[in-house]
């Protein structure tokens, strides 16, 4: 029997179906699709050698995501594959991970915080290519006028809006956050 290259685990959430893809013990990607059918189609295309698993980092990610959507978690502690990013993208994404639940900032603000003032458009490209939606909360980044701009997960801007609305409701009801890591 041939061992698959990737292990996957999925989770139905209020914003769509999430599939976590793991390779060599590291999370390679989080697919956020409108539904499970789209997720399975994307998996077949991008990761033809995959197998569903009930263990390891894929399961841990789904457990943490479930906790997030139950209002019990505000941050994630998972083995992401950071080797795939340029130093610039790494700096941006690590700074993005520090944006607290329920908060938003602009692309320019994120560039400034990561030490790259004036690179808002480049930050936008990093956000568009973020392989870890929700885990690295690119939905918390908005246009300079506060408007919601591009989001590639789920149903696009609708999903981004739903995520921000969900987080706002959790922040307004702090008793929901029972297990903040």
What does it look like?
By secondary structure, the protein is α/β, with parallel strands linked by helices. The protein folds into two domains: 6-69, Double Stranded RNA Binding Domain (2-Layer Sandwich); 84-176, Winged helix-like DNA-binding domain superfamily/Winged helix DNA-binding domain (Arc Repressor Mutant, subunit A), CATH 1.10.10. It is 37% helix and 17% strand. It is built from six helices and six strands. The strands form two sheets. A four-stranded mixed β-sheet has the order 3-2-1-4, sandwiched between helices. Strands 5-6 form a two-stranded parallel ribbon. A hairpin with a 2-residue loop joins β1 (6-13) and β2 (16-23). α4 (107-113) packs across α5. It is globular and about 40 Å long. The chain starts with 5 loop residues before the first strand and ends in a 9-residue tail after the last helix. The model has no long low-confidence stretch (mean pLDDT 90). Residues 12-81 form the Methylguanine DNA methyltransferase ribonuclease-like domain. Pfam families: DNA_binding_1, Methyltransf_1N. Keywords: DNA damage, DNA repair, Methyltransferase, Transferase.
What's the topology here?
Blueprint lengths: L5 E8 L2 E8 L2 E8 L2 H11 L3 E3 L3 H14 L17 H10 L8 E2 H7 L6 H9 L12 E2 L14 H16 L9
Parallel strand pairs: 1-4, 5-6
Antiparallel strand pairs: 1-2, 2-3
Helix pairs in contact: 4-5
């Amino acid at each position: 029997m041939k061992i698959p290259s990737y292990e996957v685990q999925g989770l139905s959430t209020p914003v769509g179906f999430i599939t976590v893809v793991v390779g060599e013990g590291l999370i390679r990607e989080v697919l956020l699709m409108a539904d499970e059918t789209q997720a399975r189609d994307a998996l077949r295309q991008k990761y033809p050698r995959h197998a569903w698993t009930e263990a390891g980092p894929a399961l841990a990610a789904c457990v943490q995501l479930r906790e997030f959507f139950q209002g019990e978690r505000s941050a994630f502690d998972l083995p992401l594959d950071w080797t795939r990013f340029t130093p610039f993208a790494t700096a941006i994404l690590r700074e993005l991970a520090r944006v607290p639940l329920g908060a938003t900032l602009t692309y320019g603000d994120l560039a400034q915080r990561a030490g790259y003032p004036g690179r808002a458009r480049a930050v936008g490209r990093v956000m568009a290519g973020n392989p870890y939606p929700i885990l690295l909360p690119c939905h918390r980044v908005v246009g300079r006028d506060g408007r919601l701009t591009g989001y590639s997960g789920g149903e696009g801007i609708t999903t981004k809006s739903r995520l921000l609305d969900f987080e706002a409701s959790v922040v307004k009801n702090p008793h929901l956050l029972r297990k903040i890591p």
